[in-house]
């Protein structure tokens, strides 16, 4: 990763350019910083301003479709498709440049590059880098930790957002050692607690306080989700984590139900992304709920102004 970045920075490799504005959302670690809520926020903001946004994503562990289609089995793609409900196009596949060209022919003029901080093959106009305050550097460089590249890569960011924090002075001071990019903090805000599998029945706050939950998830940073639940005043009796993008079997769901009963929990709770990895049909005695979240900025207006400022500084690049 470091060698590839150096080759691009020194001009030995050239990035390809899409005709439109490209905003990249990424991080230094493998998963767990809040990229999907950020991508959603940007897509919704662009759509509200009258633009035609498209999201370019690899679609990890999908069904293999590409060619600028949103018909992928990847959990994050399914979540984006459901939440945006046609307000943004989705290009899914490894060749994000090719998919971007296809979507541009269909009218897309703004591109959001999902998990794009290391995807240097595509030129971008604004690079937004997310750091999770609860685990900003993932315990070190891969494979011993979750860090994809060293902290010095912060220098490539146009905007830095520290997530799951309202104020993080020590982390902010460390970030300032590598970049003077505009720096913001943001929290993951709970929008709704929805009953699986219909996802149209919300649990009220008073009803939620009557439940004792057993939490489970298959995401990049499970501890962050469990910490969020406690911050949102869930009564959590037990937790269990799985690998990122884990596809659950019926047997695993039944095992989770037994584990919940053993600690006195009367409901299961997971992330919204996990819902798309549950078995197509299963029967449990305990209800399962999913947390729908969004990103909430310390200063939303200033953040968007900083992104637009980065767009304004970018120079047109000849398409290759």
Task: Write up what this structure looks like.
This protein is an alpha/beta fold. 29% of the residues lie in helices and 22% in strands. An eleven-stranded mixed sheet has the order 3-2-4-1-5-6-7-11-10-8-9, with helices on both faces. The radius of gyration is 20 Å and the shape is globular.
How would the blueprint of this fold be written?
Blueprint: H1 2-9, E1 21-27, H2 35-48, E2 53-57, H3 75-84, E3 89-92, H4 96-105, E4 110-114, E5 126-132, E6 159-163, H5 169-175, E7 183-195, H6 205-208, E8 213-217, H7 222-231, E9 236-241, H8 250-262, E10 267-271, H9 272-275, E11 288-297, H10 300-313
Parallel strand pairs: 1-4, 1-5, 2-3, 2-4, 5-6, 6-7, 8-9, 8-10, 10-11
Antiparallel strand pairs: 7-11
Quick rundown:
With 320 residues, the chain is α/β, with parallel strands linked by helices.
Which secondary-structure class do the elements indicate?
Answer: alpha/beta
User: Count of helical segments?
Assistant: 10
What sequence of helices (H) and strands (E) makes up the elements? HEHEHEHEEEHEHEHEHEHEH
- What is the subunit arrangement here? single chain
| Distance N to C terminus | 23 Å
- Roughly how much helix do the residues carry, as a percent range? 25-40%
Q: Give unreliable regions as ranges.
A: 62-72, 316-320
Mean pLDDT over the residues: 90
Q: Which shape, going by the Cα principal axes?
A: globular
């Amino acid at each position: 990763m470091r060698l590839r970045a150096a080759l691009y920075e020194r001009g030995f490799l050239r990035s390809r350019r899409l005709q439109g504005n490209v905003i990249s959302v990424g991080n230094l670690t493998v998963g767990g910083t809040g990229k999907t809520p950020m991508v959603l926020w940007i897509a919704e903001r662009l759509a509200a301003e009258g633009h035609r946004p498209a999201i370019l994503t690899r679609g990890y562990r999908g069904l293999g479709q590409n060619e600028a289609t949103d018909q992928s089995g990847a959990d994050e793609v399914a979540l984006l498709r459901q939440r945006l409900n046609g307000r943004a196009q989705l290009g899914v596949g490894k060749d994000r440049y090719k998919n971007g060209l296809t979507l541009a022919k269909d009218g897309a003029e703004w591109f959001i590059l999902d998990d794009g901080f290391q995807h240097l093959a595509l030129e971008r106009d604004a690079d937004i880098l997310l750091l999770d305050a609860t685990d900003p550097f993932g315990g070190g460089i891969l494979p011993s930790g979750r860090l994809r590249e060293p902290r010095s890569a912060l220098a490539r960011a146009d905007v830095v957002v520290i997530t799951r924090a309202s104020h993080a002075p020590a982390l902010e001071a460390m970030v300032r050692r590598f970049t003077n990019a505009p720096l913001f903090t943001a929290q993951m805000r709970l929008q709704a607690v929805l009953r699986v599998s219909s996802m149209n029945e919300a649990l009220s706050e008073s009803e939620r306080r009557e439940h004792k939950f057993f939490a489970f998830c298959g995401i990049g940073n499970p501890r962050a989700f469990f910490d969020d639940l406690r911050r949102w005043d869930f009564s959590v009796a037990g937790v269990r984590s799985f690998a990122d993008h884990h596809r659950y079997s019926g047997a695993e769901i039944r095992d989770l139900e037994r584990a919940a009963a053993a600690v006195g929990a009367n409901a299961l709770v997971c992330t919204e992304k996990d819902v798309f990895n549950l078995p197509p049909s299963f029967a449990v005695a305990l209800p399962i709920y999913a947390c729908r979240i969004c990103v909430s900025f310390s200063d939303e207006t200033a953040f968007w102004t900083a992104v637009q400022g980065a767009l304004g500084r970018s120079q047109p690049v000849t398409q290759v």
